[in-house]
Amino acid sequence: MIEVKNVSKSFKDVQILKNVSTVFEEGKVNCIIGKSGSGKTVLMKSIVGLHEIDEGQILFHGRNYTGMNDSQRKQIRKEIGMVFQSGALFDSETLEDNVMFPLRMFSGMSEEECRERANFCLKRVEVINKNKLYPSEISGGMQKRVAIARAIALNPKYLLCDEPNSGLDPITSIVIDNLIQGIAQEYNITAIVNTHDMNSVMEIADKIVFIYKGEKWWEGSKDEIWHTDNQELNDLIFASSLTKKIKQSL
Amino acid sequence: MDFFYHIGRYILLMQKVLGRPDEKKMFRRNIGKEIVAIGWDSIGIVSIISFFMGGVMALQLAINMENPVLPQYLVGLGTRDSIILEFSSLVIALILSGKVGSSIASEIGTMRITQQIDALDIMGINSANYLLFPKIIAGAISFPVICCLCIVLGIGGGWIVGDVSGMVPSNQYILGLQFMFQPFYVFFSNIKMIIFGILITSISGYYGYYAQGGSLQVGQASTQAVVVSSIAVLVFDLSLLAFL
Q1: A82 shares contact with chain B (CB less than 8 Å)
Q2: Which domain holds residue A73?
Q3: Long-range pairs for B70-73: beta carbons < 8 A, 24 or more residues apart
Q4: What is the distance in angstroms between the Cα of B194 and the nearest Cα belonging to chain A?
Q5: Interval B193-214: pLDDT, tens
Q6: A192-234, pLDDT tens digit by residue?
Q7: Number of domains in chain B
Q8: Which residue range forms the structural domain that includes residue B78?
């Protein structure tokens, strides 16, 4: 479980996050949604400590991450797997080496054990017989899958995904969504997915947090979202003519 | 003010870089990879430049010292000292600041803008230490080796070109090489190259590490890295002369 308590963050004079509070529950997929520039990515990066917050607290299973020094944070960071928007795979390493990387650094496993675990993770995300390829030699969707494999290599307690579906076709997006949902349930991981893909949200979200102009505007389940009277949220989720038609038919 | 800002930030980065590596086996592996990238891959260009510069230097000296009062062996002596004291260290360091410096800055800068450095940080890895420390050590190891290679090839180039052109007889050139030879010059040149190796790799790494934006900014960071590390090399070369 990750608790975000009264988090505020500014860059120079611009306040990006304003007093955001929410709870991301264990074993569930928690989606952060919002328009581009609303502060979703800043919130996610603040949660993992890539941005230092100005006010508030971030708690990982009750452990106050905000008040920790670098070496204390290091322990929690080993429990976090993160999938970046771009995949962020290491260009100079093969796919197998990318997945083996955190294992070599932290697991204390032998080289053979690391390889076995990496192969298991790659199979779990359905990347088979591609171990010796480099990230530049595979498609964007496959890069995301390898990034998920790397993120789960150390059996993390927390999985954070920053726009995992961006730039992917609808079918590959569903594959990625199902992977994230399956992994979160299988390993009882607290998963946070940052997205503005409403199809994904409706597919996998157990909890939805809507960020609007840096504030938490709404939170609830995917069933509740259909019936909300929150205007800004309605503008976002029913932006396309297709979703408008669905809403009308309800 | 900008100058002091960069100096301060560079020192803070170096504090992060010089920490204890997270995993020693990976660290040693990375040092090996970097020695290949920084040292081994530079041997070709350094060899060609050293050989030809040695040849040109010997010919220039021979032409300008064509005087019955001046003994011919002075060509060997002049070529030797110029190559050992300045060419093998300063000139080669300037060439390497272009080749190695831009490569490091663009590699690290690209890793920054594609979030690969963020990925390392999230894993709990000291990214500055993991990425830059092996490069700095590889620079400190490779540069003196390159310096020695340059001395051998430069002096050899002068000998071969002087002999083939018939302007400097072999025996006179070799006599000049042996005349008043100070082994300390070779040691001094190697010490300079260790310092230049550290400067070029760390400054280039600094500009790459703090690159922001897109490919344009990575290009700018790469250019800045070459300019600043070249200036740093020149300033330190002048300062180190005081110890000669």
Answers
A1: yes
A2: 1-79+194-250
A3: B71/B172, B72/B168, B72/B169, B72/B172, B72/B173, B72/B176, B73/B172, B73/B173, B73/B175, B73/B176, B73/B179
A4: 27
A5: 999 999 999 999 999 999 999 9
A6: 999 888 888 888 999 999 999 999 999 998 888 888 888 888 8
A7: 1
A8: 40-243
